[in-house]
TrEMBL record:
<keyword id="KW-0732">Signal</keyword>
<dbReference type="Pfam" id="PF03724">
    <property type="entry name" value="META"/>
</dbReference>
<dbReference type="InterPro" id="IPR005184">
    <property type="entry name" value="DUF306_Meta_HslJ"/>
</dbReference>
<dbReference type="InterPro" id="IPR038670">
    <property type="entry name" value="HslJ-like_sf"/>
</dbReference>
<feature type="domain" description="DUF306">
    <location>
        <begin position="37"/>
        <end position="141"/>
    </location>
</feature>
<dbReference type="InterPro" id="IPR053147">
    <property type="entry name" value="Hsp_HslJ-like"/>
</dbReference>
<feature type="signal peptide">
    <location>
        <begin position="1"/>
        <end position="23"/>
    </location>
</feature>
<protein>
    <submittedName>
        <fullName>META domain-containing protein</fullName>
    </submittedName>
</protein>
Length: 151
């Protein structure tokens, strides 16, 4: 389960970077990531996850950041994670996730499992605008993110 969560977290990180690049297109579902847009170095809050048409709201702790050196890190909702990330245009790929192994309330653990699955089902496609990103996995599931204010 922890490896699954780790992969999910890495996938999310990989997806968030391309979505950040898509900023400025106006519509979260229509803007492709462009080479000139900033993807790395942005703190993203995970707002929700849509799996099989069902929306799951994220715990307040869920977030993702991908740095220019290819490191991704964040929180799956309960556990911290880190991974290697590759961003190519609007495509994000995460390496194996490394996670902490804390146990949390069942609803948070359920979210983490679903989130990890979405991040690890293949290459993520990022779309977004200047404040939001949507990562789509190979099964059509969605990770909805918003830019987190620094500070």
């Amino acid at each position: 389960m922890n490896r699954y969560k780790q992969r999910l977290t890495l996938m999310l990180t990989a997806v968030l970077v391309p979505l950040t690049v898509a900023c400025g297109t106006g519509r979260a579902d229509s803007g492709a990531v462009s080479p000139g847009q900033q993807v790395t170095g942005v703190d993203w809050r995970v707002d929700s996850l849509t799996v099989g048409g069902t929306i799951r709201h994220a715990p307040a702790t869920a977030h993702l950041r991908i740095d220019a050196d290819g490191r991704a890190a964040g929180n799956l909702g309960c556990n911290q994670f880190s991974a290697r990330a590759t961003v190519q245009g609007d495509r994000i790929t995460l390496g194996d996730l490394r996670t902490t192994r804390m146990a949390c309330a069942p609803d948070r653990m359920d979210f983490e499992r679903a989130f990890a699955r979405a991040l690890t089902t293949g290459t993520l496609v990022a779309r977004g605008d200047d404040r939001t990103l949507t990562l789509t996995d190979g099964d059509g599931d969605l990770v909805h993110l918003s830019r987190h204010a620094s500070g």
